[in-house]
Amino acid sequence: RDRINIAIDGPAGAGKSTVARMVASRLQYIYVDTGAMYRAVTWFMLNQGISPENPEKVLQLAQNMVIELKPHENGQMVWLNGEDVTPYIRSHQVSAVVSQYARIEGLRIKLVRLQQQMALDKGVVMDGRDIGTTVLPDAEVKIFMTASVKERALRRFHELSDEGITLEQLERDIAERDRLDQEREVSPLRCAEDAIILDTTHMDINQVVEAILSYC
Ligand code: C5P
């Protein structure tokens, strides 16, 4: 079959990136983690001391920013202005504020354009919040992956064991990020009308991957 584009959206911690990476590897497609792009920008702004309350300044700095995604054996590397920022973008510090930067319209326009360019030749598995609705409305397969807040917090907890965060804190953070992502005005987290909804609360990763592949 011809190469297609696959959009995977859903709330924080649903396991989208792990699943998207595995689907991409099975199909020999390119995996694009759009959350990593918002995280890289957030890390950069925090470093420069630019608050999300100052969108003009954020946009001014974002203007000449060069973001590159590079494939890597266990996931993907993110480079910003020629520097590998992959090790910094998953920190709790970045997670806590990324949604506040992600609601800045001009920043989204810039990143969405970049994401659309990456998918022009098809054969892309892209995960995020607005892929099926805004970035790739013509994607051949659209998946909306969810799981309960409790289950998502638990999954993140196992990933972050060394950061000294409690499960309760993670649950609160995830619920708050869901709220911000769903309530923002510009491309909120929303299920596309033609998306397949996968509630993964009681599924393991391989079951989710097989389910998605069965639609491709
Ligand atoms: O997917 P991940 O949890 O890494 O995304 C981090 C944050 O980036 C999300 O909570 C959301 O605020 C933002 N994001 C977005 N649109 C996307 C991907 C991520 O707004 N397509």
From TrEMBL:
Name by which UniProt lists this protein: Cytidylate kinase
Enzyme class, first EC level, given as a word: transferase
Family matches, as Gene3D superfamilies: P-loop containing nucleotide triphosphate hydrolases
Family classification: Belongs to the cytidylate kinase family. Type 1 subfamily.
Cytidylate kinase domain segment(s): 6-215
Gene Ontology MF annotations: ATP binding; CMP kinase activity; dCMP kinase activity
Chief subcellular location: cytoplasm
Entry GO terms, CC: cytosol
Superkingdom of origin: Bacteria
